[in-house]
Amino acid sequence: MATNFDGLLQALRSFIEATGSVAPVGEFLGDIDWEMPPRSLKPHGVACSRLLDRAVELAPAGCRPLAELLARNRGELHWGQTYTAADFGQRFLDNYGWVEMFGTRGHYANDKVAGGFLVLGPDVEYPDHHHLAEEIYIPLTGGTAWRMGDAPFGLRDAGEVIHHASNVNHAMRTGSEPLLALYLWRGGPLAAKSTVSGTASGGKG
User: Fold this and answer.
1) How many domains does the chain have?
2) Any alpha helices (H) in the chain, and if so which ranges?
3) In this structure, is residue 201 part of a structural domain?
4) 108-109 and 96-103 as β-strands: parallel, antiparallel, unpaired?
5) In contact, 79 and 45? CB cutoff 8 Å
6) For the whole model, what pTM was predicted?
7) Among the residues of 98-146, which ranges form H helices?
8) Would you say residue 117 lies in a domain?
9) Could you give phi then psi for residue 66, rounded to 5 degrees?
10) So what's the pLDDT on residue 200?
11) Is position 87 within any domain?
């Protein structure tokens, strides 16, 4: 029997809908059928889930309820990692993970759009990478630098909408605090591994 995450899914939906006037969030919303059947996924933890308590402390008022709900449910969720220690090193792996709330492998089945949460620990660089799917990120914590294409890294605030078009390189670099971000994917294989064109930095250690 599937664990019931309806409350978390509804909170995720409400948060996304609150930003629906910001392009292209409304277009993504138009593609999401929220009547999604649940899947039975066994809980699977990742080391970076320990950072959710700090992410809740860092999240501004408008983002904190969603961050709190995610942290409260972390132990029952099926977390994943696209990469291994052989790709980027053990420190990166210990500070990286995601959970797909809905999509082709998420807690709720959706073949058209995927959505969930990404966690990155402090002093970590997620290197330049790209994928066929179009992507939106909405950070729930600030203090992370983001880069797209040939542009330099720039800090983005919590609640900002960050849009990556299909097959455009992008990267993230955290500072002294972790990143918690909401993500949406559409228009490509929803479980595809990104093509990495940069070199990861696991920071100190």
Assistant:
1) 1
2) 6-18, 25-31, 52-58, 64-73, 85-88, 90-94
3) no
4) parallel
5) yes
6) 0.94
7) none
8) yes
9) -70, -40
10) 63
11) yes
